[in-house]
Write a structure and sequence with these properties.
six-stranded mixed β-sheet; 7 helices; alpha/beta; single chain; 33% helix; five-stranded mixed β-sheet; 353 residues
C-alpha cells in the first residue's frame, strides 16, 4: 500500500509546489520436486488471479469489517511496504530498512534425488488461498490522518505476520526416529503439515468521501493558511477522473501485492512443502548424534527450519512490496488542488493515481 503524493498547485490558498547435511550430502531437486513446484506456482497464481477477480464487485459495498484505519498518530504504516500511500499530507513515513529487503528464498543446492524408483509421487500439501478484501477506507479520512489509502497483509494459517511471529504461525512436520545400534539416532519425515498462505486487503470504498477534522490539522497537513484558527472543518476529497476510478486503481495496486505474496509463498513454503513430501514418500532418513542434531540435518536438507522458512515468506513479501513501490505502476496516489473557503468551514482536495 502507499500513502498519497501531493501535487503542489496554487489554489484558493497558496500552497507549496510537489530467507551438517546427512553424510555431508546436499539435497537437490528431483524431477518430482520440480514438477510439484511448477504445479504450485501455476495453480496458486492462477487461483489467486481468478479469486481476486471473483471478489471484485461494487467496491462501495461495505464488508462486515468496519475499520477505516488506525487511530491518528499510529505508525504501523511506517513498517508496511505493501500499502498504497498518499504523499504530501503530513510527514512522510520512514520505512524500516532493517527488515530483509531481498532475502534469497530459493536455490537449494545439491544432487541427492529423493524419489526411489516406483515410489508414489508426493502431492502438495501447502496452498495459497484468496483472502478477504475490505472496501472500507474513506480517502478523505486517510488524507486527514496522513495514512495509507490501502494495505495488504500477508497471512499464514489465518494469522497475519505483522502481529504474529512467523515461527508460531507455521505448521510443523512430524518427525519420526529411532536409536542406532552403532550410536546416535536416525530420523525421517513422518507427516507433512498443511500450511495455507493468504492475504488480507483493506482498500478504498468508491465514495463519496468526506470527513470532519480540525482546522489546525489541515493547516499542518495541507498548508492551508485560512485554517489557522480553532474549531473544525469538513474536508471533501474528489477522485480524479472519478471516485470510482481512484478506488479501482487502489484495488488494483493492492491486488498486485496479493499476487506477489502468492509467488513468494510458492518459492518459500511451497518449495519446503515439496521437499518434505518427497522426503516422506521416499522414506529418506537422516542421522545425528542425538535427536536435535538429527532434526537439524533433516531441516538443513529441506532448506531450513519451520521458523526460518516462515520468516523467509514474510520477509520475501516485504521485499516484493518495496520492489513494486519502486516501479511507476506501484507509485502512490496524489493529492492536488487543496483549497478552503475564507473561514475554513469547508475544504477540498483532488486525489488521483
Amino acid at each position: 500500500m502507499r500513502i498519497f503524493a501531493e501535487k503542489r498547485k496554487t489554489t484558493k490558498q497558496a500552497t507549496p509546489a510537489k530467507s551438517t547435511l546427512l553424510d555431508r550430502a546436499r539435497l537437490g531437486h528431483s524431477q518430482e520436486v520440480d514438477t510439484i513446484l511448477r504445479m504450485q506456482e501455476t495453480i496458486g497464481n492462477q487461483a489467486v488471479q481468478r479469486l481476486l477477480k471473483a471478489n471484485r464487485g461494487d467496491s462501495k459495498g461495505y464488508s462486515t469489517d468496519t475499520r477505516v484505519s488506525r487511530a491518528a498518530g499510529a505508525t504501523l504504516a511506517d513498517n508496511l511496504p505493501y500499502t498504497q500511500k498518499i504523499e504530501g499530507v503530513g510527514d512522510p513515513p520512514s520505512i524500516d530498512d532493517k527488515d530483509a529487503l531481498a532475502q534469497t528464498i530459493g536455490g537449494i543446492p545439491g544432487t541427492l534425488t529423493l524419489t526411489k524408483p516406483g515410489a508414489a509421487a508426493a502431492q502438495p500439501t501447502a496452498s495459497f488461498a484468496a483472502g478477504a478484501v475490505h472496501a472500507v477506507n474513506n480517502v478523505a479520512v486517510q488524507v486527514a490522518r496522513g495514512v495509507e489509502a490501502g494495505k495488504t497483509l500477508m497471512t499464514l494459517n489465518g494469522k497475519d505476520l505483522l502481529s504474529t511471529a512467523p515461527g508460531t504461525a507455521i505448521a510443523k512436520p512430524s518427525i519420526g526416529g529411532s536409536s542406532l545400534a552403532s550410536g546416535g539416532v536416525q530420523c525421517r519425515v513422518a507427516a507433512v503439515p498443511k500450511n495455507v498462505g493468504s492475504f488480507d486487503e483493506t482498500v478504498l470504498n468508491s465514495g463519496p468521501w468526506s470527513t470532519v477534522t480540525s482546522k489546525a490539522n489541515l493547516q499542518a497537513r495541507l498548508r492551508l493558511a485560512a485554517c489557522s484558527g480553532t474549531g473544525d472543518t469538513t474536508l471533501t476529497a474528489h477522485g480524479q477522473p472519478s471516485d470510482a476510478k481512484v478506488a479501482e486503481a487502489n484495488r488494483t495496486h493492492e491486488d498486485h501485492h496479493a499476487a506477489d505474496f502468492a509467488a513468494v509463498f510458492a518459492k518459500t513454503i511451497g518449495r519446503w512443502d515439496a521437499l518434505l513430501g518427497a522426503a516422506k514418500s521416499s522414506g529418506t532418513t537422516f542421522k545425528g548424534a542425538d535427536a536435535p542434531a538429527c532434526e537439524g540435518a533433516l531441516f538443513a536438507a529441506m532448506g531450513g527450519t519451520p521458523e526460518s522458512i516462515a520468516t523467509n515468506y514474510r520477509d520475501g513479501c516485504r521485499g516484493s512490496g518495496r520492489a513494486f513501490h519502486n516501479t511507476p505502476a506501484g507509485g502512490p496516489l496524489s493529492v492536488s488542488n487543496q483549497s478552503a473557503d475564507a473561514t475554513c468551514t469547508s475544504c477540498s482536495v483532488d486525489v488521483s493515481q
